[in-house]
Predict the structure.
Amino acid sequence: MFWVTTLSLFLIGTLGRIIPHIEYSPLQYTPQGYTVANFTTYVDHYTTMPNTFNMRYFTKTLYYLNGGSKGPIFFYTGNEAPVESFMNNTGFIDYLAQSLNALVVYAEHRYFGQSLPFGGKSFQSPSYTKYLSPHQALADYAYLITYLKTKYNNAPVIVFGGSYGGMLSAWMRIKYPDLVLGAIAASAPIMAFNGTADPNGFNAIITRDYSIADTEKGASECTAYVATAFDYLYQVQGDLTTYYNLSMTFQTCDALITKGDVDELIGYIQSAFTYMAMTDYPYATNFLNPMPGHPVNVSCQAYADVNISDTWEVLQATFKAIGIYYNYTGTSTCNDIFGTQTGNLGSANGWDYLSCSTLNIPIGGIKQTSMFGNQPWNQQAENQYCQQTWGVTPQINYANIFYGTNVNPMIPLRDVSNIVFSNGGLDPWQFGSVTKSNNPNIIAFVMEGAAHHLDLRYPNPLDPPEVSAGRVTEQSAIEYWLGINQN
Ligand SMILES: *[C@@H]1O[C@H](CO)[C@@H](O)[C@H](O)[C@H]1NC(C)=O
Ligand SMILES: *[C@@H]1O[C@H](CO)[C@@H](O)[C@H](O)[C@H]1NC(C)=O
Ligand SMILES: *[C@@H]1O[C@H](CO)[C@@H](O)[C@H](O)[C@H]1NC(C)=O
Ligand SMILES: *[C@@H]1O[C@H](CO)[C@@H](O)[C@H](O)[C@H]1NC(C)=O
Ligand SMILES: *[C@@H]1O[C@H](CO)[C@@H](O)[C@H](O)[C@H]1NC(C)=O
Ligand SMILES: *[C@@H]1O[C@H](CO)[C@@H](O)[C@H](O)[C@H]1NC(C)=O
Ligand SMILES: *[C@@H]1O[C@H](CO)[C@@H](O)[C@H](O)[C@H]1NC(C)=O
């Protein structure tokens, strides 16, 4: 999920690493009846080194026991945050478990939350961080699933995940088909890697989201205003005499002193627009920051009646627009452009390392389709950043080769079965996700009007009809895999 931890880098010529998953607390759904436990597993599944660590997982047995211990196991493959974030925001699993008498399990990804292989030292040196990878995490889940199947009647296992969690779910089915009967992979950009997607697609979708808002409530040409603001910011970046005014206009906590500081400001502004597009949910959510329903529309209102030829007026409106993301409650006293833009997620390190090693996702934009202007992906600058920060060079072809998703680009996933790939029509991560399938054993669809894995949230009356239909498709697929309700 997905934080724009270092989006600013992007602007000094390297690249933005945007965490695909997002966390927010739900207003509708509160997980209840879960029990926490530890599972002891190997730090390194690929040597005979005997070191172990405790990974956390939560289980809920109520529905399973109600069904006479005959139901399946629904297993959420945790991603890049404390696992409670996913319990809080994946109410659909609970909803579905109730009707299928499933045991629900949420596993915490190693190096996140409290599942730290080397405790507080886990991010302190390459010799500790090197066990943070999807294949190690998948092996953790394979051992945990084996244990759970032994404990619970050899129950069939369906895995679920959103965003990076959805990638893990799909890969879990691909790598461990004997342990996992099927996977629901929501907004899972498994094709976002080198050579499998157009890096410029990401910002193009964000820009399209904002252009849809154009026609709403009189905020005309929202994207033109944002583009004007970005043009001007890049233009004045070299002009020291504007820095004081920029600090004042954007109420930055610290004065802008260097060109690099202006990069940080630009990244901070871009993050707000990016996250509002990713989490453009139809009802109010309490993400990292509380936001209203349809934040894209709401932020565009800041430009209503603004004179687009008056650049400072446009910048002032931009300050208001990003306030929908950073300051919706009106309690922020200044914009901390050097701080993390992900709230107190505590997972920025882990994602940054993953994106520098196995999960290097090229993201960029071109002026023709991006309201943020030209921001080409620069692999060399990215490699330099990763070396400096973590002492590693991105393995850019890891996902394609390790999981076989790029074996035949004409028929992706030809030899794979029992995966549903759901996508949101508003979600920028679609650019690297599986949105259609010509393999009859793989279901893929795009839900109009939906942002990043809206379908995994607890059903809400404000959900677009395609999201409700998507959930029905997911349930039918699971029932088909389990061999129930078939006529
Ligand atoms: C899990 O293990 C950690 C230490 O690794 C410990 O602090 C924690 O209390 C344990 N939790 C449970 C539920 O046993
Ligand atoms: C999950 O939600 C509970 C309340 O329902 C809240 O106390 C907790 O802080 C949330 N945890 C995370 C990680 O979002
Ligand atoms: C990335 O993928 C492209 C297309 O498959 C390939 O030509 C290129 O060599 C790859 N880049 C690197 C650095 O391996
Ligand atoms: C806001 O945006 C969404 C998604 O683009 C759109 O479907 C909806 O009609 C808009 N609603 C309002 C009230 O502006
Ligand atoms: C818009 O701003 C431009 C540049 O500052 C100015 O010349 C023009 O008069 C303004 N238009 C209106 C309608 O205020
Ligand atoms: C400083 O910004 C204000 C709006 O915040 C604008 O009216 C003014 O023209 C700007 N001054 C300079 C010198 O750019
Ligand atoms: C936050 O909102 C309040 C209330 O509208 C406003 O007074 C304040 O200037 C805003 N601060 C920032 C940093 O946006």
